[in-house]
Amino acid sequence: MATDMQVDVIVVGSGPSAVNAAYPLVEAGLTVRILDVGNRDATYASAIPEAPFSDLRRNDPQQHRYFLGEDFEGIGFDHVGSGAQVTPPRQYVCKDAQRLQPIESSTFHPLQSLAEGGLGAAWGAGSPSFTTADLAGFQISYADLVPHYEAVAARIGVSGACDDLLPFLGRLSAMQPPLENDSNSTSIMSRYSRQRTRINRDGFYLGHPRLAILSRPHRGRDANRYWDMDFWTDAGKSVYRPRWTIDELRGCPNFSFIGQRFVRTFEETAESVIVHALDLASGCMEQHRGRALVLAAGALGTTRIVLRSLKQFGRRVPIVCNPHTYMALVNLNGFGRASRDARHSMAQLCIVYAPDGPTRPFTIGHFYSYRSLFLFRLMKDSPLPHRESLKIMRLLSPSIGLLVLQHQDHPTPAKYCTLIPGSDGEDRLIIDYALSAGEQARIDEIETNIRRALLRLCCVDVRTARPGHGASAHYAGTLPMSATDDELTTDKNGRLRPMRRIYVADGSVFPCLPSKGLTFTMMANADRIGCHLRTVLRP
Amino acid sequence: MSTTRVTSALDEATTELRSEAIRFSRYLVDCEPSEALIERYLLANTLLFQDRPTARDRTLLAFAHKHPWSIPLLDAGTALSRSAPRFRRKLLVMMAILETTPELIDHTAPIEHYIGPAQLALRLGRAGIVAALKLIAGVVLVHVVAKGRDGH
Q: Looking at beta carbons, which residues of chain A come within 8 Å of B135?
């Protein structure tokens, strides 16, 4: 066992929370060390030429190598499930995760990551703020988060518009202008503009999504080039990845990133925290010592480390995760129209269904045009002969879109995880997750109302797919922030009870999930925890 | 089994796959695949279909090889299956390969230029009617082929 030099703060993980917790600490001059496995793509990054999607399709004879994958892993035969959005060049994000962090569940199929940047390396970049209605049940208020939303937005670059969705997505000063919409979504938007009053009366609103994608150059990164390659490559760095922040931090002498380290446990002494990590290259265990520890290994990773360190085997902890639905929509407004070639690949529109207004819980969805993905993926699920299916898809696909809906989630006794020791010495996280009949009925009702509103916009739902529990990759609630002093909860500042020097900065601390994606708020909360910790360590 | 017989069986399987690639490509996009595409199809088959085919899969594939005219009908007849049989998965693999081939982009890429409503309705209607007819005939054919296997 090697004993390393002590630092002020050890951060476990390199995802969106980890890097944004580390940032204010490094900025304050504290010594910070990130420990993470930090897998990187070794195959595709250099193989994809820097060119628009349509040019590559027309000209690159080697395109099958990255579009289908070296082992044709991009041709999936399964029904839509967890990771459906992960293209071959992004599949390194999940590499080694199940081997090193085994999960057993028949009802919940999560995505885990040991990549540099965590799941943030394949993130869709949706960045809405949580509003007061979203934060019901949290120990923090919207006002607590506002300065940190601004700090994170200035750091990572967020684009968006002040449109009908402003009351739902929150105001943000440090916001770039919105990205340009493609032809498909522009036609939906113009119909919405014509029918706004009637549609709003039903509680349905449409606008630009809030995205961590640059519409203007920012901190050495390029504005989006509208090459439609965002699912395949990070060229130009316009879509935020935690790696960009790590690269910035690497320029600071008080920051270090130690990769290939798989953190197993921690222990707390009167003066410090000791972290036990496996060096994956040598197979040896080593110790790292810090004055404080920030756990940000993703809700599932962090929970596993906590339960193992505190020897809480067999203890049930709650878990929440946004139920997810994909609706394949045909936009009749776009039928037969010529479409612009320049476009980005991420969400084009954001829809909000808020029958009770912005002060009550509402449902949010993001509309993606089906462009830089291939027709064979649509044909796979089409109940038609392939030849005719191809003919129809070629005509329809410029008007096809995917609406990705997320529903809120709250803890119940039917949603929990437990760490159990395995017979081979490796422990396993067992997850049980089930929605109650009431929760499912509520989701069905919301989706029916959304379908009705979409019909008013001439968007027809041709197929609804529920990819199963865990597919949204939004995991939270395992170590919830709580007003009571219970063990395995966290206080307002992310301190893990009953510890004194251990902080949790990822989704684990969110007691429940509103319909919105949690990543941007997770980053803002991590920044808040980082700011708090720097006052503790450097009063 | 002697080495010669193993080699001969492998050669036979490769020849079968090569003819499969050619027939699938003709069926899907009316084009002869290049040698590179055929090789890619062979490699994809090796990597993606490592498990043994079921009896039903073998029957359908054998029938398609013996009667290439039946490929469109077998495709249609298996389109409604809950779990796609290997025959249809192989077609999908060929489709993916064709779709990522620049020379075939005019046969596989989305049509993004303006099409008048009448023209669009005509094209969609024609494809829909052909698909429906093939589905009916295909379901019958697949039933007959499967029954033939059970009869054996």
A: 384-385
